[in-house]
Amino acid sequence: MAGRFKPITMAAVVFFLVAAVAPLFVPSWATLFALILAKSIVVLGIILLLQAGQVSFGHAMFFVTGAYSAAFWGKYVGGGDIVLYLVLGAVSSTVFGLIVGLFVVRYREIFFGMLNLAFSMVLWSLLEKMFHYTNGADGIRVARPGLLGLAFTPETFQYVILYVSLLIAIAAFFGVQRYLDSPLGHMLRAIKSNETRLEYLGTSARRVLLVGYVISAFLGGIGGTLVAIIQQIATPEFGYWTKSGEFVFIAILGGGAHAFGAFAGAAMFEVVRFYAAAQLANAWQLILGVVLIVIILYAPNGLIGLRQRDNRSKEGGH
Amino acid sequence: MNSTLATLAVLDGISYAALVFLVSVGLSLIFGVLRVVNVAHGSFYAFGAYLAATFSLAVAPLSPWLTYPALVAASIVIGVVCGGLIERFLLRPLYGRDDVLQLLITFAAFMIMDNLQRLIWGVQPIFANEPLKLLPNISVFGVNYTSYQVLLLPCVALLTLIGLRYFLRRTLAGAVIMAVTEDREAATAIGIDAKRVYFVTFIIGASFAALGGALALPTTSLVPGMGADMIVLSFAVAATAGLGQIEGTAVTALMIGLARAFIIYTQPEFEVLVPYLLMVLVLLVRPFGLFGATQLRKI
User: ipTM score here?
Assistant: First the structure.
């Protein structure tokens, strides 16, 4: 790997540097960048599944699992720590991902998407209706946790959570890259290009997809925990189907072909939302919708695909 | 649960199922022909309801009976204008491309329509129940119920089902649609304009969703978010039945409508859970739905 950094990896490194430094000068960007990074981690999971040609329209269920594991701990046990929350979110979403994954990896394409949607809607309705345990639609407040026993003021805290998110995002980015470059990652891609041939090689396509699915659920859970800590709340809305749609949206916006697409997409999405919500509070959704249409119609490979357009003729058709 | 409550639950279930059927059958029809999961379908439902409210509030002072044609007019306007524009300018450039993109562009349409709905009609709940008040109440096994809900809605749903069946199986236009669904290439080769078939089918499907919304108007208050709720619900019905299955959609809508109504009277907190739980259970056993034909899978 070393010595042959691709331009897109360079772009990622530049992005991480900007995320680390820029908020030091503009304090309001600390939370913005933390949110971008947290959502990117979730979208990395969507991109993993896109490599296998599968679209999960229910991935918010892992996002909401991560968020609620922090919220439940705060509500029922009390006293929390960022590290503890992250471990809880990671473990619960991974276990949940494994259980759901065992069922959904048997299906492909529209059936895969539908079943994911169905599972996520069941979880959503439980969170919304089990009022005594979850406060229903109001959600549960997540009190500002400490980090390894240290407590922070709100001003310092936004930087703490920013750098925690940044560290995890960097680890997730390179981890996902490494995974996709590994034999297991190549097999994951083979599910999209030719699943039958993959099975002829003596590999179980289901098992390959299950590994990818569980990793993707794990990433969703981590991202959900981070967002719950950043926004200091977890609501059932985190697990509604529109949230799942938003993650797929961000993946396509950035470009599903490469891990950096998650960061490019999330940055664009959150920045548009941040500024559009400030300027045109009533129309940010409309603006995002139009952006999405323009991207799909004119740049279906997403933002990161724009640069690679000229090279398209080299790839050859298939 | 006594017999009065049971009767109430059955009547509730039937009238609710009728509305859900209208929306779901549109979704199923669009998927069957175009192979597109139309995420904006719930928005057609919401727009149909809101425009019907605007129309009927406008004509009600003239004569309350004019609200009936107003409901129908609103759903046709929404179906033709919104449905037509979305098919022509968003979906058409994407046929033959990745399924994800087709699904996602209707998601974009959903976001835009959801926002427009708030901008045009605001976020305050809207009521307009003239049509409901016009028709007398009737008594079913000693239970007083509005005939709008217990007679009119099921009749419209039944007419839709029969009409759609007749249209698809017995008319030339229906045969053309079926031909394109079965084999687009061969149909195009014998001179059928597949693009026009897609366009017309999408408008019909969208109009059904809008009609569902317009007919729901007298029975409910219009709130933001009704479209987002309806699309997953109708999707659950269509997927449980098997996408593209018209009669199956009717049976499933009735099933889910009745199950939901009984749950409301016994365990109200689990009302929203019912359709999705049913969907999970059915899809786990039969991923192609209760009435769907087994499709060839890669493995």
Answer: 0.84
User: Which CATH number characterizes residue B121's domain?
Assistant: 1.10.3470
Percentages helix, strand, coil for chain B, rounded to the nearest 5?
75, 5, 20
Any A CB within 8 A of B98 CB: yes
Q: The CATH number of A2-317 is which of 1.10.10, 1.10.530, 2.60.40, 1.10.3470?
A: 1.10.3470
* pLDDT reading at B152 higher than 60: yes
> What 8-state DSSP symbol labels residue B146?
E
Report the Cα A182 to chain-centroid distance in Å. 21
Indicate the DSSP class of residue A201: T
Chain A contact for B239, CB < 8 A?
Answer: yes
CA torsion through residues A106, A111, A112, A118, sign: negative
Q: In B, residues 132-171, which contact A (CB 8 Å cutoff)?
A: none
Which segments of chain A does DSSP mark as H helices, in order?
7-25, 28-51, 60-72, 82-104, 109-129, 131-134, 154-181, 183-200, 205-231, 241-254, 260-279, 284-298, 303-307, 312-315
Mean pLDDT across chain B: 86
B93 touches chain A (CB under 8 A): yes
As a whole number, mean pLDDT of residues B208-236 equals 88
Structural domain including B232 reads 3-285
Interchain CB contact of B284 with A (< 8 Å)? yes
- The alpha-carbon gap from A39 to the nearest alpha carbon of chain B, in Å, equals 18
By Cβ distance, the residue of A108, A130, A248 closest to B104 is A248
CA distance A174 to chain B (A): 26
Q: Measure the N-to-C terminal CA separation of chain A; round to a whole number of Å.
A: 28
pLDDT tens-place string over residues B159-201:
999 999 899 888 998 889 888 888 888 888 988 888 899 999 9
Amino acid at B282: V
Range list of β-strands (E), B26-168: 137-140, 143-146
Contact A300 B97 (CB under 8 A): yes
Residue A143 exposure: Cα atoms within 13 Å on the Cβ side = 13
Tell me if B89 sits within 8 A of B22, measured CB to CB. no
Q: Do A293 and B39 touch (CB under 8 A)?
A: no
Above 80 in pLDDT, residue A277? no
Q: Where are the domains of chain A?
A: 2-317
- Cβ of A245 within 8 Å of Cβ of B107? The answer is yes
CA-nearest residue to B239 within chain A is A114
Tally the domains of chain B: 1
| CB-CB under 8 Å, A129 with B272 | yes
Which residues, numbered 161 to 220 in chain B, qualify as contacts with chain A under a Cβ-Cβ cut-off of 8 Å? none
Dist. CA A299–CA A303, nearest whole Å: 7
Measured between CB atoms, which of A128, A205, A285 is closest to B114?
Answer: A285
User: Angle, to 10 degrees, between the axis of helix A183-200 and the axis of helix A28-51?
Assistant: 20
Position A317 pLDDT exceeds 80: no
Cβ of B107 and A196 within 8 Å? no
Chain B residues with CB under 8 Å of A50 CB are 100
Model confidence, pTM: 0.87
Residue B202, Cβ density class (10 Å: 0-12 exposed, 13-18 middle, ≥19 buried): buried
Give the span between the Cα atoms of A296 and B67, in whole angstroms: 40
